[in-house]
Design brief:
The complex is a heterodimer of chains A (172) and B (269).
Chain A (H helix, E strand, L loop, with lengths): L1 E7 L2 E7 L5 H8 L18 E4 L2 E4 L12 E3 L12 H8 L9 H14 L5 H7 L10 H17 L8 H7 L2
Parallel strand pairs in A: 1-5
Antiparallel strand pairs in A: 1-2, 3-4, 3-5
Chain B lengths: L6 E4 L3 H11 L3 E4 L5 H6 L7 E4 L9 E4 L2 E5 L4 H6 L1 H6 L1 H9 L3 H6 L2 H7 L5 H9 L2 E6 L2 E6 H4 E3 L2 E2 L6 E8 L6 E6 L9 E6 L2 E5 L6 E2 L1 H8 L4 H5 L16 H16 L4
Classes of the chains: A alpha+beta (172), B alpha+beta (269).
Chain lengths: 172, 269
């Protein structure tokens, strides 16, 4: 076992982990955060997407020890006080989900995308979500939701409402 | 899926990484971005006894120029290479290739050094390095040496790096004005190339047309002799023996190599 220290959704944590413990299992089982799903488990589907130091990553393909010293944000961390994040709100309003399994990953990939590119074109949204698969094939409304969220963030005059980690990246 | 157990050590410097390599032995593996190695470990295709994590070696990340070469640190992530203004102006083919790797999440973690050392013949960056006539810098206990792309890829997932050497940097010629083309044929988003072609400055490299990324030598010779793009491209598959798999048989791959080479020589990407 190894001691690993990192920040998850703004909270400092210190846990003993096996080096082989995948970040997604750490988040789900050690931290009790179940938003990130294990879908394909082969770096393809993106259901396990979280932000690591502000960038979207697939947490099934990262060791927890690789996240030492870093900052992880899961979907739970987007709405700490219960008020939906603009991206979550847009997915709800545009019906950007069907069964919901891919949704936490789609939302986190979107938050990462909009931090890097606050006003993407539809084509850039489709390419930006290339790493996320929707098993219901509900892509049109997902793209619509991302564009709506981008529009809302632009209207709010700031692309840095995307959570502290994403905000830092946008400011780089 | 959970990898087999291994010991873990985070390298604190290049020298420390070399020490760890010496002490942990041949069954240890270097961990860069982990986006080739960890999936293989999860599938138990490989089970290293120890991982030496290079993730903290920030001195190996970033881009600079050295005379007429662009120097890319081995731990530079694909997303950072793709977004680098320096790379986009001095070696646009390389920046474009980095932007074609996997998907955004993969590009946030994967590194150029890891991708080259992994030496997947279907991958983007090995083909790009070969097309650009670049080289890699390797550091071992005996010092530093440079290995040309033409000599680097030794076999299927095999390089000419010695077991005690660490790939520290990648060098490509600065050619801001050279015309280039890049073609990657895939059936699914975020997949490896069924066949890929990168062309720059009279050099043509092919991905997934053999056990290593290959030069299309006959087509290059034809170009040098004044052939048209179409004329040279017709020779692109000469001498290749591509593998057959569920995506394509050999004849289809040879067809793709010819078609994609023509498009790449027409500077399409």
């Amino acid at each position: 076992m190894m001691r690993v220290e990192l920040t998850v959704n703004g909270q400092r944590r210190s846990d003993d982990v096996e080096p082989r413990l995948l970040l997604v299992h750490y988040l789900r089982e050690t931290c009790g955060l179940r938003a990130a799903n294990v879908g394909c488990d082969t770096t393809s589907c993106g259901a396990c997407t979280v932000l690591f130091n502000g960038s979207s990553v697939k947490s099934c393909t990262m060791l927890t020890v690789q996240a030492a010293g870093g900052e992880v944000t899961t979907a739970e961390g987007l709405a700490p006080d219960g008020e939906l994040h603009p991206v979550q709100r847009a997915f709800r309003q545009e019906h950007g989900l069907q069964c919901g399994f891919c949704t936490p990953g789609m939302v986190m990939a979107t938050v990462g995308l909009l931090a890097e590119n606050p006003e993407p074109t539809e084509q850039q949204v489709r390419e930006g979500l290339e790493g996320n698969l929707c098993r219901c094939t509900g892509y049109h409304n997902i793209v619509r939701a991302v564009l709506a969220a981008a529009g809302e963030q632009a209207a709010a005059g700031s692309a840095t409402t995307a959570g502290s980690a994403a905000g830092e990246r946008a400011g780089q | 899926m959970i990898p087999a157990q291994f010991d873990y050590a985070a390298a604190e410097s290049v020298a420390h990484a070399l020490d760890l390599m010496a002490s942990l032995g041949d069954e240890a593996k270097l961990l860069a971005g982990g986006h080739s190695l960890l999936p293989m470990m999860k599938l138990r295709l490989v089970a290293p006894t120890a991982l030496i994590d290079l993730g903290q070696l920030t001195e190996l990340a970033g881009l600079s120029t050295d005379g007429d070469e662009l120097v890319i640190g081995a731990m530079t992530r694909h997303a950072d290479l793709a977004a680098s203004e320096l790379a986009r102006s001095e070696a646009p083919l390389l920046a474009h290739a980095a932007a074609q790797v996997g998907d955004p999440q993969i590009r946030h973690r994967g590194t150029i050094g890891g991708s080259l050392a992994h030496a997947d013949p279907a991958a983007d960056l090995p083909m790009a390095l070969l097309a650009l006539g670049g080289s890699v810098q390797a550091q071992g206990p005996g010092g530093t040496r440079r290995i040309a792309a033409d000599d680097f890829f030794a076999g299927f997932f095999e390089t000419s790096l010695a077991p005690d050497e660490l790939l520290t940097a990648v060098r490509v010629p600065r050619r801001p004005d050279a015309a280039w083309g890049y073609q990657k044929f895939v059936r699914r988003a975020n997949d490896w190339a069924i066949v890929g072609v990168a062309a720059a400055d009279g050099r043509i490299a092919l991905a997934n047309m053999g056990s290593v990324p290959l030069r299309a030598s006959a087509a290059e010779q034809a170009l040098a002799d004044g052939a048209s793009a179409a004329g040279a491209a017709a020779l692109a598959a000469d001498g290749t023996e591509p593998a057959e798999d569920m995506h394509a048989d050999g004849e289809f791959r040879r067809h793709l190599a010819r078609v994609l080479t023509r498009r790449a020589l027409e500077h399409r990407s």
